[in-house]
Amino acid sequence: MPSVALCAGAIIEGSYTPGWINSIGDGASGLEVSALAGKYFADMFAVSGEVGYRVRDEGVPSDLFLNLSGGLLFENIGLSVNYKLVDAQSGLQIGGPGFSPVTGVFPRLEEDIQFLSGTVSLNVTDQTNIGVSYGEVIDGRNTSKSKVFSVSMEYLFDTF
User: Fold this and answer.
1) Contact, 24 vs 14, CB < 8 A?
2) How far is CA 105 from CA 17, 47, 81, 86, 147, in A?
3) Torsion angle of C-alpha atoms 31, 54, 45, 147, degrees rounded to 10
4) Predicted confidence band at 15 (pLDDT cuts at 50, 70, 90)?
């Protein structure tokens, strides 16, 4: 049987200035709920998925979101492929009626995004893992055509 979880969370707006193209967030509080499921097969292959819905205030459109992941583990090397979809349920269009870049309306855009990424990781020891990830926006609306590269290191602390 797969592992299943239900999640709920609160979104609390930050103290930054929202509404501009370089703002770090949408400046809105809200709620998010999702369901997750995942399963390991033969101790070397894993799949997981999450589907959820996010609502926020301040005129920020609600989002339906989906995350899918598949991974392989060989000895101490891991490979994974991840897909993320965010589908805004309403909102303004860049260049459409009501849009003006000088009025700070970016949080009210219908921002749809599909993001695909991959990760290669290595378990250096039983407690240390290093990884390299690359991803990019493969489709979207009212979003930037982003490419993301990251290097990570994880360390498992033994608390007992």
Assistant:
1) yes
2) 12, 38, 34, 19, 24
3) -120
4) confident
Per-residue three-class SS string for the chain: CCEEEEEEEEECCCCCCCCCCCCCCCCCCEEEEEEEEEEEECCCEEEEEEEEEEEECCCCCCEEEEEEEEEEEECCEEEEEEEEEEEECCCECCCCCCCCCCCCCHHHECCEEEEEEEEEEEECCCCEEEEEEEEEEEEEECCCCCEEEEEEEEECCCCC
What six digits make up the tokens of 145?
Answer: 């055509």
Tally Cβ neighbours within 10 Å of residue 134.
13
- Residue 134: pLDDT above 70? yes
Q: How many CB atoms lie within 10 A of CB 72?
A: 12
Token code pair at residue 31: 């709620």
CA angle 111, 51, 4 (to 5 degrees): 160
- Two tokens, residue 91: 């909102």
Query: What pLDDT digit, counting tens, does each position of 20-35 carry?
Result: 777 778 889 999 999 9
